[in-house]
Amino acid sequence: DIQMTQSPSSLSASVGDRVTITCRASQSISTFLNWYQQKPGTAPKLLIYAASSLQSGVPSRFRGSGSGTDFTLTISSLQPEDFATFYCQQSYSTPTFGQGTRLEIK
Amino acid sequence: QVQLQESGPGLVKPSGTLSLTCAVSGGSISSSNWWSWVRQPPGKGLEWIGEIYHSGSTNYNPSLKSRVTMLVDKSKNQFSLRLNSVTAADTAVYYCARKDFDQGYFGYWGQGTLVTVSP
Question: How far is B75 from chain A (nearest CA, A)?
Fold first, then answer.
């Protein structure tokens, strides 16, 4: 299995801040990397697919980048509704997820 | 708009079999997508369980493969999950989801259903 490691595991930030979450794969996955946002009690929501493609309806303040083994999710200016847990997922082989990054209000 | 809805018992006894069904609406289960199950233990991360194509082809997580069976019912536009020999470690919210055939992302999810394994 391909292991996905996210950092940090948790993060405190304020509305208006720019934040970056990283995801590292245990082997090269090209750009088969997807990002999800999950709020308590709800299903994950797709934000970014193929490393950098914005899912329809997702605000443009979310940006994904990277290829190979190293990827980032950047939120350019945090809004109150953005506080949640974020997961990366590789789709190069048998799907695996990162352990999650919890984004909290400072 | 594609919608998925899980259904099944919320409580299963240890050593028993967990059975869930996912009903698909707003789209055909015979479309070019994989239909997956993903679970999330309370307070923990996401684990892919497996997937099925409308042809009946399946792929399972190697760590669960010996206990998992997935079936598709095209006449009812739904698919199902059976997990046998369950233990407390199988307690989780179970989601069904549609996986894009080419890029492999999960674009549509059900709301999830909590299954507790307990005597």
Answer: 27
A100 contacts on B by Cβ (under 8 Å): 45-46
- Helix residue ranges per DSSP H, chain B: none
Q: Mind listing the pLDDT tens digit for each residue in B49-87?
A: 999 999 999 999 999 999 999 999 999 999 999 999 999
Both tokens assigned to B115: 């299954």
Taking the CA atoms of B28, B95, B6 and B111 in sequence, report the sign of the dihedral they define: negative
Select the residue from B2, B38, B44, B46 to test the A interface by mutation, using most A Cβ atoms within 10 A.
B46
Task: Give strand pairing partners of A54.
Answer: A48
pLDDT value of position A93: 96
Phi and psi, residue A81, nearest 5°: -80, -5
Burial class (CB in 10 A: 0-12, 13-18, 19+), A74: middle
* Six-digit token string for A90: 């590789």
pLDDT category at A92 given cuts 50, 70, 90 is very high
Given phi > 0 = left and psi -120 to 50 = alpha, else beta, which region is A52?
Answer: alpha
Distance from CA of B74 to the nearest CA of A (A): 25
Tell me the one-letter amino acid at B55. Answer: S
Contact A69, A4 (CB under 8 A): no
